[in-house]
Design a protein that fits this description.
Distance between the termini of chain B: 59 Å
Strand order of the largest sheet of chain B: 1-2
Number of strands of chain B: 2
Largest interface: A-B, 54 and 61 residues
Structural class of chain B: mainly alpha
Shape of chain A: globular
Radius of gyration of chain A: 23 Å
Radius of gyration of chain B: 19 Å
Structural class of chain A: alpha+beta
Helix content of chain A: 25-40%
Number of helices of chain A: 6
Strand content of chain B: under 5%
Order of helices and strands of chain B: EEHHHHHHHHHHHH
Oligomer: heterodimer
Distance between the termini of chain A: 41 Å
């Protein structure tokens, strides 16, 4: 006979079983063989870049072009080797708005974090992996820039509110000198701008920020439930 | 800027895929619209396939391997599913759930493989095998489920291999249900559409499936002396 106690026990068992089964989804799957087989039947269209005709270049123009290229390389090296970028509230609020509006960035629609990680890795092989969310409606992902650093963003919905999760290598981001709160021994940095709340932390070598128009406590709760 | 959120993917809606009727007509009512995200169709089918469908290759390959013991056959089924998805992509309409659509193709591809092996579709129907009643008996017998005092701890002590083996040992319809609802965390409505059964059936199968999986795992635990 069913009793409240046995019902509770069964519910706990069911929840534990669900958690264990959901973990199977995080196991890596090697799709290289499948990709090879599929590409053999569906060849990717390859761009055929036109061969540059350099014969018209005068020696002076060639020298100027070389200097320009050299300058660009130097600028690139200086930029890429510079220190971490500050995760300021202004920057993050701007990113959140851009992610939701897809302004200027190519957004890939996805419906899970797993799919987002695959799509992001295809575009940026060094992309930091996005931690798993509990059951939320994942919508899209994209690669963004914060200052000079590349970050990945995933848009999803919690409690009917659009949320952006931004993830970067921890070494690329400097945490703000803002208020903090601690959950389970983990420190979360909190800031707000224009009604957008932001909760960020560093875990597993990654910087992660959740932002949106949810209360800070709810965002922090979400952040603490991420599976790294 | 609109604060509403976007649909999952602009890959269009399948009406009929390789003779299998699929109806996701209510998808657009379930997923809210966002004016901002750029989900316009891609320029050509190949590009669209690799950007819209390929990110789900891991999901398809994983599912095929969880459903089919023979590794080579699982690879074939996954490959066939992706090719069928490519061929069906041009007939799409906006607003479908891509993972549910792909899972539907995978399911029918799997059934086609059974048919090719001279088994009728009825052979893979749980109801016609009378397995529903058998499974209910198994579940009823183990309602009390002794040996699960610390469910999370015990479940974590199993390797993925053990969990997958236990999953594979379940009747196909139960296995499919757990795969969709628990492993891929698909909602019950989408899973019901993939499986072509009412939502209530999905819920009851998931409930029984979890109990049956635990029953199978408990036997393994006893063999491995993980449980009393």
């Amino acid at each position: 006979m069913s009793t409240p106690e046995s019902d509770k026990k069964r519910q706990q068992l069911d929840e534990a079983t669900s958690r264990r089964l959901a973990k199977l989804r995080t196991a890596p799957v090697d799709t290289s063989g499948l990709l090879k087989a599929v590409e053999a039947q569906i060849p990717r269209s390859k761009a055929h870049p036109r061969r540059l005709k350099l014969t018209w270049l005068s020696p002076m123009r060639a020298a100027a072009a070389s200097l320009l290229v050299l300058g660009l390389i130097v600028a690139l090296v200086i930029n890429s080797s510079s220190g971490p970028v500050l995760a300021s509230a202004e920057r993050l609020a701007h990113i959140h708005e851009e992610v939701l509006a897809a302004g200027g960035n190519h957004v890939t629609p996805v419906d899970s974090i797993g799919a987002a990680n695959v799509a992001l890795a295809a575009k940026w092989p060094g992309a930091p992996s996005v931690p798993e969310l509990p059951r939320d409606h994942v919508m899209s992902c994209c690669i963004h820039t914060m200052g000079r650093k590349k970050i990945v963003c995933v848009a999803f919905q919690t409690d009917g509110v659009p949320i952006t999760m931004a993830v970067a290598q921890a070494a690329d981001v400097k945490l703000p000198a803002s208020e903090t709160l601690s959950i389970g021994g983990v420190t979360y940095y909190v800031q707000s701008r224009g009604g957008i709340n932001m909760v960020m932390t560093e875990r597993g070598g990654r910087w992660v920020c959740l932002m949106g128009k949810l209360p800070v406590n709810r965002l922090a709760e979400l952040a603490s439930s991420l599976r790294f | 800027m609109s604060t509403e959120l976007e649909t999952r993917l602009n890959c269009p809606q399948p009406r009929e895929i390789f003779g299998h009727r699929v109806n996701f007509a209510d998808r657009q009512t379930r997923y809210q619209k966002h004016d901002g995200l750029d989900l316009r169709p891609h320029e050509n089918t190949t590009e669209r396939f690799y950007s819209c469908v390929w990110p789900y290759a891991q999901m398809i390959l994983r599912a095929a391997h969880y459903l089919v013991r023979d590794s080579a056959e699982a690879d074939d089924i996954a490959q066939e599913t992706m090719i069928k998805a490519f061929k069906g992509l041009s007939r799409f309409e906006d607003g479908t759930n891509i993972s549910a659509w792909l899972m539907t193709i995978l399911r029918h591809t799997r059934i086609d493989h059974f048919r090719a092996a001279a088994l009728s579709a009825a052979d893979v129907s749980l109801e016609r095998l009378g397995a529903e009643s058998t499974n209910r008996a198994i579940w009823t017998e183990h309602q009390d489920e002794p040996g699960w005092e610390n469910p999370d701890e015990l479940l974590e002590s199993f390797s993925d291999h053990h969990v997958i083996q236990a999953l594979r040992s379940l009747p196909k319809e139960i296995r499919w249900t757990l795969l969709l609802v628990e492993v891929e965390e698909m909602d019950h409505e989408d899973a019901a559409k993939v499986l072509g059964v009412p939502v209530g059936t999905v819920k009851s199968r998931a409930f029984r499936g979890r109990a049956m999986l635990r029953h199978g795992l408990l036997s393994v635990a006893k063999e491995l002396r993980l449980a009393r």
